[in-house]
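Hello K.,

You asked for the raw outputs rather than the summary table, so here they are, unedited. I folded two proteins back to back in the same session to keep the settings identical. This is the first:
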Amino acid sequence: MRAVDVMTNDVISVGDHAAVPAVARLLAERGISAVPVVDDDNRVVGMVSEGDLLHRAEIGTECRRSWWLDMMASTDKLAGDYIKSHSGSVKDIMTRDVISVIETTPLAEIAVLLETHRIKRVPVVRDGRLVGIVSRANLVRALAMTIDEAAVGAEDDDRALRDRLLAELKTQRWAEVSPANVTVKDGVVHLWSSYLSEQEKRALVVAAESIPGVRRVENHMRRVPVRLLI
């Protein structure tokens, strides 16, 4: 699946001329954690999140350092912190280096971006213009949709299911499984392999359960006894 398959099209955004209190009110009323900032051509120029609004003079939460940290901080850093906590313009507090994706970006790549950069949503752009947004909630909904998709594949015959599972296991270095130890009957996968650890056993079961069309997995595996060599 790609960004276009799950993104929210009716995106809540603000103009780059917006006032900070108005953006704070928008986040609170809509129950969202961040909002894209766009220019007059609907091009994404920034992002304002709850984190950008944490340290504000109006509520007494501006950054306060001990005197010796202030002495060590550069004047540029101190001036930047002052602007962030006192300016009433979105242009001054927004994050300018916006992480964005395009409509064809795979969901797996988006998930990595959200996790790596510790953000909750990412704008979707077309030629730089905002066309949608993908949030963590969108990814969760996409996962929920796969329940129905799996049901469609339930008519696959047993041979096709077995071939898919064996192909998946072949790509995994930890999965040393002989094809003879994998059988499928009426959509039920039977695993007869031996295993060295509980993690390996669970991974084999998960791999089988992840194949669309598999009804359930029967575990007949036995653990390999560990012998101490003297």
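The second followed immediately with the same parameters:
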Amino acid sequence: MIKALASFAFAFSVLSCTTGVMAQNAPPNVVKELAPSGTLRAAINFGNTVLAQRDPAGGVPRGVSGDLARELAKRLGTPIEYVTFDAAGKVFEALKAGAWDIAFMAIDPVRSEGLEFTGPYVVIEGAYAVPVNSALKTNEDVDREGVRIAVARGSAYDLYLTRAIKQAKLVREPSGPEALAMFQRDKLEAAAGVKQPIIAFAKEHPEFRVIPGRFMVIEQAMGTPKGREAGVRYLREFIEEMKASGFVANALKASNQPDAAVAPPTPVK
């Protein structure tokens, strides 16, 4: 326990030192656009455990998403409110109600209709789980007649597979855990998801295996509703600085996500 607390304290100190060096005040027009209520409302998706994890003690969200949100609020000089969800599709749906000011989501053309995105800050992968004795051996094998693929509704991989799959059928549940439960319960032929949770699921259920490789690259970015021109430019510059400074890498390390990669630089437009 003492060792765990010491490790957490060290990780926090690394992030704090990095933040202290980079801290600066945002222009008033940016603050007004990104936090119009005076509080930065940050959507946090606990459904993607690579980016966000619940604090067992009920504290602030852990992970790179929460760390970036807190650093942004610090620069804006505003309080922060966490608007939490268990699936990315639900985050996007809540955009219609104006429930949040910034969100951490994968870049996708469907989402770009309502959101402005930064460049990606983390790159992760999509993978398939199949029964251990399945004839499906490669990612390309999955797209065939008679194959049912469990997905989380509105997730990045659901949106991508909706465009890419030609013969297989997508079967949707509201969240990733529910999709995996359906895959197991209804004996579907495959389940799609973020690679890390898919691997964890297969380890816990030896009757399933993960198909090697990936079926897609998932670029995770920060998004804000359209119409905030000064705000989105600030966010784009902010994300590039967070990547270049080591902040994102440190946040991933502090939350024990060694398999997630910091995205390469993206020119700010």
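The domain at 2-122+219-262 is CATH 3.40.190.10 (D-Maltodextrin-Binding Protein; domain 2).

Happy to rerun anything if the numbers look odd on your end.

Regards,
P.
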